[in-house]
């Protein structure tokens, strides 16, 4: 399939996990992919994997929480790869703690990296998209947006992504820009491995426990989120906008 031929896609947090799987899939289907992560060295692994398979990708270092840095790196990407058509707001962090023990710094860090970065990247990207009257923005929310013990900061940020998505769809729709979000359940990545470690479990035991209460009886894999992100970034979803799609193995 070449759903993304001629398109330039930016994937933030693309060094590993869901971002890396998404970058690989978009590239497989013809996109020139800018893999953005905190350092270009970290992003290079994904970019090299893509180019080794004959795809087009470049690695960029950028803290997406920094508006000026985003503006500068997106300008470089547009110049290097020939435009900016698709934005995947994927970079994210967790700093879990029960609310009464949650330091303000951890509240701020999670809101900044998970939500303000989506403002930064979307705000810069929409300038390119409005000018060309074509764009796709897909952001990573989370099932935790519905509430999750120990994640007041993360849940607030991921619920914020849903509100941002619904509103940008209204404001940017007239410029032929689709804006959607994906809300994954438990996906086996470094992020959930770190959660397991925090609760004193191995990644494997933690996954077994989560799988037992998930209707599909297993946890998700990064590729199972990437395929939904790619759908929303493609013309297959041309009349879908303002939506948050839960991808969580059937959990309610
Ligand atoms: P990972 O932690 O595996 O990957 C996130 C990537 O984002 C890392 O490479 C990280 O770099 C990078 N990153 C963090 N902060 C910044 C920043 N300020 N600027 C640029 N890059 C940054 O996460 P996942 O793949 O698991 O998750 C991807 C997205 O999906 C996140 O938004 C997450 O909240 C969301 N999600 C994940 C779920 C899951 O179960 N895994 C469930 C629901 C939502 P570094 O490692 O150097 O810090």
TrEMBL record:
Coiled coil: none annotated. Keywords: Oxidoreductase. Residues 7-225 form the Ketoreductase domain. It comes from the Bacteria. Its EC number is 1.1.1.100. One of its GO terms (molecular function) is 3-oxoacyl-[acyl-carrier-protein] reductase (NADPH) activity. The keyword Oxidoreductase applies. Gene3D superfamilies: NAD(P)-binding Rossmann-like Domain. The keyword Oxidoreductase applies. It holds the Pfam family adh_short_C2. Belongs to the short-chain dehydrogenases/reductases (SDR) family. PANTHER family: 3-OXOACYL-(ACYL-CARRIER-PROTEIN) REDUCTASE, 3-OXOACYL-[ACYL-CARRIER-PROTEIN] REDUCTASE FABG. This is 3-oxoacyl-ACP reductase FabG.
């Amino acid at each position: 399939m070449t759903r993304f031929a001629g398109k330039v896609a930016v994937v933030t947090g693309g060094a590993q996990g869901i971002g890396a799987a998404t970058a690989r899939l978009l590239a497989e289907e013809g996109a020139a992919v800018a893999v953005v992560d905190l350092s270009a060295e970290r992003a290079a692994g994904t970019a090299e994997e893509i180019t080794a398979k004959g795809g087009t990708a470049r690695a960029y270092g950028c803290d997406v929480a920094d508006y000026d840095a985003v503006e500068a790196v997106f300008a470089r990407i547009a110049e290097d790869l020939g435009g900016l058509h698709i934005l995947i707001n994927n970079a994210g962090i967790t700093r879990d703690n029960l609310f009464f023990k949650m330091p303000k710094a951890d509240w701020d860090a999670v809101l900044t990296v998970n939500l303000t970065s989506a403002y930064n990247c979307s705000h810069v990207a929409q300038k390119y998209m409005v000018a060309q009257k074509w764009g796709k923005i897909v952001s990573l929310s989370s099932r935790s947006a519905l509430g999750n013990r120990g994640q007041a900061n993360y849940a607030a940020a991921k619920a914020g992504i849903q509100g941002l998505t619904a509103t940008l769809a209204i404001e940017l729709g007239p410029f032929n820009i689709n804006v959607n979000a994906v809300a994954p359940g438990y996906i086996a990545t470094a992020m959930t491995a770190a959660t397991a470690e925090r609760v004193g479990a191995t990644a494997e035991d933690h996954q077994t426990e989560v799988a037992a209460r998930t209707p599909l009886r297993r946890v998700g894999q990064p590729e199972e989120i990437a395929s939904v992100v790619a759908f929303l970034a493609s013309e297959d979803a041309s009349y879908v906008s303002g939506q948050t799609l839960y991808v969580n193995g059937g959990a309610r």
